[in-house]
């Protein structure tokens, strides 16, 4: 993040980011790569079960995952073979209403999906937003009245404010003083200060403009940062265009306004009296302050077949305090052409999974930045993971939850499958938890609540997630949750349906899963409890370096809490971590958990609308910023490796229906 302290050479250390915690390493998950949803045999258990699963670094996860697959806990009874998840064939997936085609209409070219897809106009499109200028933005705190400092600031503005501005401010302050309207003669009230402070400045020695006010525009979890090119904070001039790929019928375009005020612009008395004021604390720590949010209504489903101008040079009121924005918004449907890797510029490697890598990419036509997950078909086939892989694509395309990373497109080549996802670049929750050791009560509550909504929306579609852990939870640029990695989801799991597959990640496994007598969707509420416990204390409740010992603890040990543990949190955890799934909180639906006193201060309606400002905003400088990803990945050259795997036509057929350019969501409304 840009550091004001460095630029203005202010003493006082910045918050250390390298405070290493003693928390655990990344944990390999027990995706049964050999027979992912089948159950390990007793032989396999004897062979592998006694070996502890060593913690691995994220970089070594791939190989470790493969090695540790299907390691059943020592001494844990053999599972009966799962009947419903043993076949690779997509038709055996058992997904009511979730169609994965295994069409007979095969083309010779496997890059063309088995399901013949006619180009359809109107099912996807491009949204273009032009932002011209804004008006009426005020600061919720005063700035120091220091003419010397303000002169320097004005001189470094993009449009070199004339010195007359300072004279104007001086006489205004004089008048305010005389009329007794100033609380503090050394401070300029926030709504007046913005009329003089430039919207963007060029600091000495820097070639870049640094915005003091900026906007983020978010559509379907893809965000663009809009910075002013000139003007004052009160009246910023943008003249910027941003385009968004539309593959879902989103109702709104979300606009958030932030300011980035250098702390030297606060008066010393304000700093001294800041106390726990969260806004002032942010400024003092050189963090961006969220000023306001606004949902611009689009109602795209009404326009999916035609080009339409939704707003024409319109001044849109953003808040009740009179701030407004002059914009034009156009929607243009596009003919759904098949995508290929050539439609993307590969920018950075940002992660690695079991079957391939995840890269930050730029879509060449709209210039939008996405995450592209490339999966090698041969690996998927050899590890009998076709069912899970197709399920992941289906879940991602169908789900519409603000806290789940949305799928924008999917396509395939002869050798690989590709998923194009919204790029979520605030870092894994794992990364933040490692750095900070544990989270505060309110921060843990916020993440737990957003995750609860994510799991609830999956359960509403009869999907069990099964793999909740900090490594699969990403933070977006604002600090909201985005759940990723749906490779272990189980579809078509109605309320009391049972499955017996042994999978997940050791420290998060529910007791009923370990016992192997089958489990229901209620396992997800156990993992939510484990995660809340880990966020509050730094480690999962039954953690042990030795995996078989950890399994024993999960089954037998009492739940212990550190001294001074919050009573509501304790009560919720005791209820979520009930070993009897029938008595576990959530067994009768998520509303039981939502009603718990731990969440009593929270409006779920507001939370679902992303209406709460996240307690922590990751340091993210726009979509290109990859600083929250492991340097081990980002330093790698981003290439789509050439592979020469041969797959028979019948195998290729099983990947039919993979391609997604937005039809599923929009078609259903037509
Ligand atoms: N949409 C995204 N935006 C940003 N980063 C992402 C996104 N999706 C995945 N990543 C990064 O890539 C990593 C690997 O992705 P993911 O977990 O989906 O792969 P996987 O093959 O399913 O992994 P696993 O081996 O755990 O199953 C994630 O941990 C995350 O850091």
Automatic annotation (TrEMBL):
EC numbers for this chain: 2.7.11.1
GO biological process: eisosome assembly; regulation of fungal-type cell wall organization; sphingolipid metabolic process
Domain AGC-kinase C-terminal positions: 600-670
Domain named Protein kinase: residues: 344-599
Enzyme class, spelled out: transferase
MF annotations from Gene Ontology: ATP binding; protein serine kinase activity; protein serine/threonine kinase activity
Annotated family: Belongs to the protein kinase superfamily. AGC Ser/Thr protein kinase family. RAC subfamily.
Keyword Cell cycle found: no
Polar residues compositional bias, start-end: 57-67
Residues where ATP binds: 373
Source organism of this protein record: Hanseniaspora guilliermondii
Regions of compositional bias (Low complexity) in chain numbering: 91-107
Reaction equation(s) it catalyzes: L-threonyl-[protein] + ATP = O-phospho-L-threonyl-[protein] + ADP + H(+); L-seryl-[protein] + ATP = O-phospho-L-seryl-[protein] + ADP + H(+)
PANTHER family in UniProt: RIBOSOMAL PROTEIN S6 KINASE
UniProt protein name: non-specific serine/threonine protein kinase
Any GO CC annotation of this UniProt entry: membrane
Keyword vocabulary terms for this entry: ATP-binding, Kinase, Lipid metabolism, Nucleotide-binding, Phosphoprotein, Serine/threonine-protein kinase, Sphingolipid metabolism, Transferase
Amino acid composition bias (Basic and acidic residues), ranges on this chain: 15-25
One Pfam family matching this protein: Pkinase
Annotated region described as Disordered, given as residue ranges: 1-125
Keyword Lipid metabolism (UniProt): yes
């Amino acid at each position: 993040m840009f550091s004001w302290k460095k630029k203005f050479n202010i003493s006082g250390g910045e918050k250390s980011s390298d405070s290493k915690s003693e928390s655990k390493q990344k944990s390999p998950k027990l995706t049964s790569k050999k027979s992912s949803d089948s159950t390990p045999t007793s032989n396999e258990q004897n062979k592998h079960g006694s070996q502890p699963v060593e913690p691995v670094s994220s970089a070594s996860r791939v190989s470790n995952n493969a090695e540790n697959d299907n390691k059943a806990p020592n001494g844990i009874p053999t599972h009966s073979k799962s009947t419903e998840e043993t076949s690779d064939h997509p038709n055996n997936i058992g997904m009511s209403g979730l169609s994965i085609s295994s069409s007979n209409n095969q083309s010779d070219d496997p890059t063309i999906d088995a399901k013949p897809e006619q180009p359809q106009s109107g099912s996807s499109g491009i949204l273009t937003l032009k932002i011209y200028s804004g008006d009426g933005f005020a600061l919720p705190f005063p700035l120091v009245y220091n003419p010397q400092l303000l002169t320097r600031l004005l001189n470094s503005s993009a449009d070199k404010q004339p010195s007359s501005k300072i004279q104007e401010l001086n006489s205004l302050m004089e008048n305010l003083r005389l009329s007794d309207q100033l609380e503090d003669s050394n401070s300029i009230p926030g709504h007046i200060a913005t009329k003089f402070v430039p919207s963007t400045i060029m600091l000495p020695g820097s070639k870049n403009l640094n915005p003091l006010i900026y906007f983020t525009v978010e559509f379907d979890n893809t965000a663009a940062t809009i910075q002013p090119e000139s003007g004052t904070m009160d009246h910023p001039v943008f003249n910027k265009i941003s385009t968004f790929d539309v593959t879902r019928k989103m109702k709104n375009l979300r606009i958030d306004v932030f300011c980035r005020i250098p702390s030297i612009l606060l008066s010393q008395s304000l700093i001294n009296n800041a106390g726990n004021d969260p806004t002032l604390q942010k400024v003092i720590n050189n963090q961006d302050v969220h000023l306001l949010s606004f949902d611009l209504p689009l109602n795209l489903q009404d326009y999916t077949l035609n080009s339409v101008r939704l707003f024409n040079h319109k001044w849109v009121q953003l808040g009740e305090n009179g701030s407004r924005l002059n914009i034009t918004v156009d929607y243009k449907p596009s003919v759904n052409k098949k995508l290929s890797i050539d439609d993307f510029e590969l920018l950075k490697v940002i992660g690695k999974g079991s079957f391939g890598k995840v890269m930050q990419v730029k879509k060449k036509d709209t210039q939008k930045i996405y995450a592209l997950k490339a999966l090698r078909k041969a690996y998927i086939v050899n590890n009998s993971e076709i069912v899970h892989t197709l399920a992941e694509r289906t879940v991602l395309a169908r789900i519409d939850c603000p806290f789940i990373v949305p799928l924008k497109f999917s396509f395939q080549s002869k050798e690989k499958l590709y998923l194009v996802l919204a790029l979520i670049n605030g870092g894994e929750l794992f990364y933040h938890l490692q750095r900070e050791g544990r989270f505060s009560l309110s921060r843990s509550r916020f993440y737990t609540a957003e995750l609860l909504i994510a799991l609830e929306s999956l359960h509403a579609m009869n999907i069990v997630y099964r793999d909740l852990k900090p490594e699969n939870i990403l933070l977006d640029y604002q600090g909201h949750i985005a759940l990723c990695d749906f490779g272990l989801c189980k579809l078509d799991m109605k309320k009391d349906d049972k499955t017996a597959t042994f999978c997940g990640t050791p420290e998060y496994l529910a007791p009923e899963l370990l016992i192997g007598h089958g489990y229901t969707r209620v396992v997800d509420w156990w993992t939510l409890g484990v995660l809340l416990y880990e966020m509050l204390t730094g480690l999962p409740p039954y953690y042990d370096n030795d995996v078989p010992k950890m399994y024993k603890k999960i089954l037998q040990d009492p739940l212990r809490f550190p001294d001074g543990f919050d009573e509501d949190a304790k009560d919720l955890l005791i209820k979520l971590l009930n070993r009897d799934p029938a008595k576990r909180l959530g067994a009768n639906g998520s509303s039981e958990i939502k009603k718990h006193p731990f969440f009593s201060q929270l409006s779920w309606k507001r939370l679902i609308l992303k209406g709460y400002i996240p307690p922590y905003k990751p340091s993210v400088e726009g979509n290109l910023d990859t600083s929250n990803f492991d340097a081990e990945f980002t330093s790698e050259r981003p290439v789509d490796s050439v592979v020469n795997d041969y797959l028979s036509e019948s195998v290729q057929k099983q990947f039919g229906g993979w391609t997604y350019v937005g039809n599923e969501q929009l078609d259903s409304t037509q």
